[in-house]
């Protein structure tokens, strides 16, 4: 099939959508919704988040040197959207969305969101000015997962989390797993067990 060439842009889809929570010695806890976030390293574990300098949370993250990435469930989707279109300069987003900020071990200021399925607490290791956004590289120093998401083998069951992703301006629910790393070469009995197929 032929391709149609489009103007260069951020067409990568879907992407993770997260609620980034932050605070500083002079700023109360705030939430910013981000779709520009990704895994960048495994040892040490690191993620990147990109924030426009004019956003309220940019200064908070820059001054505190820390942030918490909170995963988004379908239940949090409306609050996630709200926190992406409203500014923390004008309101307390935790209060407006009836969310709870909870302390995270290893963080001086940045809280996690109690209602999130899971969080990754990060300390900023590097900032890179990219133009419209500054990318903060954060080392993950603590991870928290809701106890209800753990299966009987101690593994996180993300299907229970009912996570959503962001796809070029729209929120999309994630469906049942259709594969897993290495499924293309897995034995039939492994496929049946892992994908729960009859």
Q: Any overview of this molecule?
A:
The chain is α+β, with helices and mostly antiparallel strands and 198 residues long. It has a single domain, classed as Pnp Oxidase, Chain A. Helices cover 17% and strands 34% of the residues. It is built from 5 helices and 12 strands. It has helices at 56-64, 77-85, 93-96, 158-161, 188-195, and strands spanning 15-16, 18-22, 30-34, 37-42, 45-51, 66-71, 101-102, 112-113, 118-129, 134-145, 164-167, 170-173. Strands 3-2-6-9-10-5-4 form a 7-stranded antiparallel β-sheet. Strands 1-11-12 form a 3-stranded antiparallel β-sheet, with no helix packed on it. Strand 4 (37-42) and strand 5 (45-51) form a beta hairpin. The longest helix is centred in the N-terminal third of the chain and has 9 residues, at 56-64. It is globular.
């Amino acid at each position: 099939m032929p391709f149609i060439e489009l103007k260069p842009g951020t067409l990568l889809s879907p992407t993770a959508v997260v609620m980034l929570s932050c605070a500083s010695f002079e700023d109360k806890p705030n939430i910013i919704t981000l779709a520009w976030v990704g895994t960048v390293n495994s040892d040490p574990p690191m993620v990147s988040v990109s924030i426009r300098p004019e956003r309220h949370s940019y200064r908070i993250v820059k001054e505190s040197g820390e942030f918490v990435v909170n995963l988004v469930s379908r239940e949090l989707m409306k609050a996630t959207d709200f926190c992406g279109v409203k500014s923390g300069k004008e309101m307390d987003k935790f209060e407006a969305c009836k969310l709870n900020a909870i302390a995270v071990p290893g963080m001086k200021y940045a809280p996690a969101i109690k209602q999130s399925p899971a969080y990754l607490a990060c300390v900023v290791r590097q900032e890179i000015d990219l133009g419209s956004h500054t990318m903060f590289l954060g080392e993950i120093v603590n991870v928290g997962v809701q106890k209800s998401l753990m299966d009987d083998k101690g593994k996180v069951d993300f299907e229970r989390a009912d996570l959503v992703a962001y796809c070029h301006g729209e929120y999309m629910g994630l469906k049942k797993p259709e594969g897993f790393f290495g499924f293309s070469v897995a034995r039939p009995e492994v496929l049946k067990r892992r994908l729960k197929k009859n």
